[in-house]
Amino acid sequence: MSVEGIEFVTVLVRDPRTQKEDSWHSYIDYEIFIHTNSMCFTRKTSCVRRRFREFVWLRQRLQSNAVLIQLPELPSKTPFFNMNNPHHVDHRRQGLQEFLENSSSGLGPSDDSISCGCKASPASEES
């Protein structure tokens, strides 16, 4: 098989940004970028912003559908997370990146929800 014929899916978690909900509440969201040549996807590139609680939601949904597969863990939700500390933010970003990479490698083409968690997630869940 030639190199051109090999399917790939590249998932990147990048560009963390602080978002303010109001004067007291803020959160960090991350850009999730997918580039692929896989026939399983209708779009070859996709980009969306998601926050930590949406990764939690995605993992819960994937786990409920993947009873025979142990999904990787998300980075821990620590009470000492400081969104003003670039090291904390980047460490979480790396953990989310690893989660998406490892989750997508263990799931088949029918597990469409991995593509950025693009299905709507409930807004009522806490981050």
UniProtKB/TrEMBL annotation:
The keyword Zinc-finger does not apply. Residues 100-127 are annotated as: Disordered. GO terms for biological process: cilium assembly; intracellular protein transport; vesicle organization. Residues 8-127 form the PX domain. The keyword Magnesium does not apply. InterPro entries: PX_dom, PX_dom_sf, SNX10/11. It is found in: Cytoplasm; Endomembrane system; Endosome. This is Sorting nexin-10 isoform x1. The lineage of its organism: Eukaryota, Metazoa, Chordata, Craniata, Vertebrata.
